[in-house]
Structure formats: structure tokens, C-alpha cells
Amino acid sequence: MKRALLVIMLGALYILHQDFWFWRTANPLVFGFLPIGLFYHACYTIAIAFALWLLVEHAWPSELEDGVSDGETVRGGETATYRPVAESHGRPLSSTEEGAKH
Amino acid sequence: MIPALFVFGYLAVVLYIGIFAFRRSAHREEAEDYFLANRSLGPYVFLFSLFGTNMTAFAILGSSGHAFNNGIVTFGLMASSSALIIPLSLFLIGTRVWALGKKYGFITPVQMFRDRWECSHIGTVIFAVQAAFLVPYIIIGVMGGGTALSAISGGRIPYWVGGAVVAMVVMCYVFFGGMRGTAWVNTFQASLFLCFGAIALVVIGAGMGGFRESAEALLASPATAPLLTRERVSPLFFFSYTFIPLSSIAFPHITIFCLTARRVSQFKKTVVLYPICMLALWLPCVFLGVMANRATDVPKIQEKIEARRALAVQGPTLTSDERDALRDKTAGDDVLLLLLERYAPLWLAGLLGAGIMAAVMASDSQILALSTMFTEDVFAFYGGKKRFGEAAQVHTGRLFIVLITVVAYAVALRAPQNIFDLAVQYAFSGYSALSPLLVAALFWKRSTKWGALASTVWCAVSVAAVAILQYVVPAPAPGPPVVMWSIAGVEVLSRTPGGTAIFGLMPVVPMTIISAMFLVVASSLTSGPSSTTLKRYFRP
Questions:
Q1: B406: Cβ–Cβ under 8 A, 6 or more apart, which residues?
Q2: Percent of chain B predicted with pLDDT > 90
């Protein structure tokens, strides 16, 4: 449910970008100098930041860090899982033989 | 000349940062350290560096120039749409690319594609197309450098010298500092040009006696009032532009940059604060670009306004060469510099000029990315690393950096189009059309290498087709487009004053949709990678 609401929020933001209602008018000039179309998009950009904050708070893919080491344990496509694919094509993918370096 | 001295001081600082990064590197002969800063960037360096990398010459010079001629629509076209699409693509795609890179040691997107789709030479085709699209983007940096340095020095430093100086400085710190140097320099640059917008707004505003009177005067004149609205741009064209920011995550330098974060949580601040950074930089630049139309006491700005008027009035009766000559005169890439020269005190103009140079010099990441791609996807993949060792790989990368810079400079000297057009028409559209590759690799199990190949070839062919079309059919005068193909009264293909339209949309829309269709159809007709590979990418 939460995920669906976030998707709807992002879809609504995309639609709100097409603000045809301020297309042909500059008035009112906000603060006396800022055309309304430009002011709208400035506010819209701030709204995006808020929406993205909600997204980060409620739908952050923290599972991506599972099984990923924090140190410098992998380098340049040299992991064991990566190697068989390269070998199956008979071409040396970046330094597949140098796994012993670790 | 004093502002130019400030800029040279700035260039010296940037150069020092690059060399300092070289000295700080403990593993300078290792590819992962040189090309990815050992995947060790913290949250703020990651945010500012990524933002600095995305903001090229057009972010300041091109945006104000575009706004000078087209009005406030520039902000909605490029800034607010990018503020939504770019962080969202980092959230959905960037984080996943980071995780796979960390897990399997990928340094370039092509390495991931090769592994994900179990392909070898198809990966090389993707590399070639990515590289071909990236080169114009690098040229933008050199052109921007030449334009900026020449304008800041009041024309005393010629364009070709300015371009050469900027190219040399960028080449040096990328050559020595690699990703670490580039990221630090980008962080410094982003901090500078984020301050630039607000300071420029205040200084120029004070110089012009406030903006209220200028805005009202622009609104009162029939010639300039449309600049404060979006009536000169069709809603379809405006909608089309939301496809352009899809290019960001598909640019190899951005994909590669996603691999430099220490932890995935370092994307959080970038995702949330990216729109605010966009606002802080683009709003002042676009607004000042529009307001420049009131600075008629600046002779060069007056010349541009007169050329624009001549193009609008006499355009249809002129030859295409004469129209092109007038278009060159209307190009507004230097209006912000001209405003600073007119309204800011010399020392401040120098400092702000350094801020502009910071944005202009964003080609560093592209140069490094191209070098990374060449050394990883070609040199190492085809046996160079195995034969000559990892140190030779890094040396090859550095040699390649010199080569790219020289070629980009040579092309920049001859390229006639203005910064904005060159970027949008070739690099951005091409990469937007390549974005389905990343989506398919990460989210669609059934995607295959043949689907990826079909999509990539389509991207190359469609970009070439648009470029050839625009070369063969000259741009018409401002006004209605030249319809080249219509069916039952519906305009299918048109040549517009600014480019090409397909069903009234920018080419990037059909290019991206058809690219995705090719990927889906070709993947559906061919068999995918082994279950062993799929298990590593998708949870059962």
C-alpha cells in the first residue's frame, strides 16, 4: 500500500510538470519580477526534493547492501562468480587470472 | 584582464588538487584505485562530485544563452524535469549498479552487460556506440572553455588559446589524479558554481537597479513579453524534453561514478538534495538570461537582439547560409559573462568567472570515463592486461586521456554549432535511447544479448539519421516548420528552426520508445543467459 502511494505520488509529480495552465501568462509577477511560470517550476523543484525524501525514508533498498563486503575485497571484475562467464566465452575478461592477488 | 587572472589562479588550484590526489593515492598503479578511487567516496563528495559531473558548460553558459533567446521555458525544459528524473534514476538504477559493481567487481557498464547477458563482442559494440556518443560531450567542455576564457578576458585571450588552456588543465589533473582527483576537483567546482548563482543574481540585480522594472519593461514589449511565458514552445515539445534526463544515468561517466560510493546509503543525500542543487544553479542562470534582454546598453547584447529581430523579420527571404550566420550572432552562450563584465566590479567578475569556469570544466569525468572504458572494455578484455600487467593498463589509460583531449580540442576548433544544440542533438538523445539497456539488464530477466544489440544498433542508426537529416535539410527561418512527410494532414516528420520533429515531438521520444521495443522484440525471439547467471542478478 505504501509502495503504491509512493508510485502514485511520483506519477502525479511527472504530470504536474506539464503545467499547461500557466502556459501563456506571465502574470502575476511574484515578488514583482518573477513570472508565475518560473515561480511554479521553482516550487515544483522543492516539492520534488520533499517527495524524494519520502521515497528514501519509506522505500530505501537497504537489501542491496546484503552480501556486499565493505572493504576492498573485489577488484575489476575479478570475483569468483564473475570469472566463469568470461571463461565460457574463451576471452580473458579483465584479469580473471589475478584472483590470487587477494 | 584582471578577471582572467582570477581564472588562472583558479586553474592553478584545480591543478594542485589533481596532483595532490595523485600523491595521496597509495595504490596508484592499480586500476580500481585510479579509475574508481577504490570505491571509497563519502556522501558529500559523492553528492557534489556527481552534481558537478552532470553540470557541463551548458548548465551556466548554455542555460542562460538558451533563456536569453527562448525565455523562462528553459528552466522547465531542462532543470525541473532533470530534478525529478535524474535522482529517481539514481535511486532505482544507480543503487543497483553500485551493488552489482561492489559484489562482482565491475568497473564499467559494459563489463556488467557482458556478464549479465553472457556476451563478448556485443559488449564491444555497446562500448563503441557509448564512446561515439560521449565524444561530442567532451567537445562541449573544450568549446565552453574557449568561449568562457575568451569572454572573461574581454577577447584578449583568443578562443583557440582559451580552449587549449582549459583542455590542458583538465587533461593534467585527470591524468595524474584519476577518479580521486576528478571527484575532489568536481566537489570544489560544484561548491564554487553553487555559490555563483546567488552572488551573480545579487550583483547583476543591483547593477541593473533591481529586476522589477526590467521584468515590467520586458512584459510591456510585444517582442519580449513571450520570453516570460512558454508560448513559443509547444506542450508536445515541452513534454518531449522530459525524455532527455533519462540520458544521465546511461552516460558511462555517471554509471561509472555510481560505483565509487563507499556504501549504498551514500546515495540518500544525493537523491534528496539533487533537486535543490538544480534549483540553486539553474534558477538564477535562467532568470538572468531572460533579463539580459533588457541590457541593451551592452553593445554585444544589442547586436544579438538585432540579429534575432532580423532573423524573425527577414528569415524567410534569406539563404540558409545567411540564416546560419544570423543564428551564430544570436547565440547567447556569453550573455552571462557580458552581464558580469558590465555590472560586477572587476575583482568580483573575476571570482564569478572562476565559478563559470568550474561549470565549464566538467568534461573531466567524461574523459576519464572514456579512458576507463577503453582500458577495461577493450585493452584488458582483449588480453592487454594479461600480457602487460595492471600497471601497463593504468599507463594505457593515461595515454588515452592525452589522445582524447587532443582530438576533442581539434574538433572543437572547427565545430560551428553552439554548445547547447551540439549537446542535446547528439549525446543526450543517444544516451536517452540507450537507457532501456540498463533497465532491462537490472529488472527484466528475459532480456538477452540480441535484444541489447538490436537496441544499441537502433540508437546508433537513429542518431546518425537525425544528424544527416539536419545536415542535408537546412534549418528554416523562425516560424512554422518545414513539413517533410505527412499522412492525411498529420505532420510525421518536420524540420524545425531548432532541429527535427516527429509527430511534433523531439526525436528523442520515438528513439527511446523504439529502442525499448527493439530490445523487447529481439529478446522475446532469442534465448537468454544461463540460469546460473540469472540467479546472481535476480532473487528466485
A1: none
A2: 44
The Cβ of residue B217 has, within 10 Å, a number of other Cβ atoms equal to 12
CA atoms of B54 and B48, how far apart (whole Å): 10
- pLDDT at residue B97, as a whole number: 96
- Residue A84 with chain B: CB contacts under 8 Å: 532
Question: Any CB–CB contact under 8 A between B302 and chain A?
Answer: no
In the structure, what pLDDT confidence band is assigned to residue A92 with cuts at 50, 70 and 90? very low
Tell me the C-alpha distance between B196 and B64, whole Å. Answer: 13
* Residues contacting B125, CB < 8 A, separation 6+: B453, B456, B457
pLDDT at B438: 97
Nearest to A29 among B118, B215, B533 (CB): B215
pLDDT at B144 over 70: yes
Q: How many Cβ atoms sit within 10 Å of the Cβ of residue B374?
A: 21
A62 contacts on B by Cβ (under 8 Å) = 264-265
CB proximity B202 to A under 8 Å: no
Query: Is A26 within 8 Å of B273 when comparing Cβ atoms?
Result: no
Measured between CA atoms, the residue of chain B closest to residue A66 is: B99
Interface test with A, best of B127, B179, B229 (most A CBs within 10 A): B229
Which residues between 257 and 296 in chain B have a beta carbon less than 8 angstroms from any beta carbon of chain A?
A: 262-265, 268, 271-276, 278-279, 283, 286-287
Are B115 and A23 a contacting pair at CB < 8 A? no
Cβ under 8 Å to A: B residues 85-114? 87-88, 91, 95-96, 98-99, 102-107, 111, 114
Query: How far apart are the CA of B272 and the nearest CA of chain A, in angstroms?
Result: 5
Helix runs in B415-507, H state only: 419-422, 429-443, 449-472
| C-alpha grid cell, residue B435 | 537507457
The pLDDT of residue A96: 33
Element (H, E) at B393: helix B390-414
Chain A and chain B share a number of CB contacts under 8 A equal to 201
Complex-level ipTM: 0.90
d(CA B50, CA B273): 11
Q: What residues pair up with B490 in beta bridges, in sequence order?
A: B487
Residue B477 has what DSSP assignment? P
Q: Is the Cβ–Cβ distance between B515 and B459 less than 8 Å? A: yes
Give the whole-angstrom CA distance, residue B476 versus residue B195.
39
Measured between CA atoms, the residue of chain B closest to residue A51 is B272
| Residue B159 identity | Y
B359 versus B39: the higher-pLDDT residue is: B39
Supply B180's cell numbers: 580521486
Pair A29, B216: CB distance under 8 Å: yes
Distance CA B275, CA B243 (A): 17
Question: Kindly report the CA angle at B521 between B519 and B527, in degrees rounded to 5?
Answer: 85
Confidence of residue A102 (pLDDT cuts 50, 70, 90): very low
pLDDT, residue B422, reads 56
Give the best residue of A43, A54, A75 to mutate against chain B (max B CB count within 10 A).
A75
Taking the Cβ of residue B534 and every Cβ of chain A, the question of whether any pair is shorter than 8 Å is answered with no
Residue among B182, B191, B193, B184 at smallest CA distance from B364: B182
DSSP B482: E
> What's the rounded Cα separation, in Å, for the pair A86 and A51?
42
Task: Name the minimum distance, in Å, from the CA of B209 to any CA of chain A.
Answer: 12
Q: Given this model, what pLDDT does residue B117 score?
A: 96
Q: How many H helices and E strands in chain A?
A: 3, 0
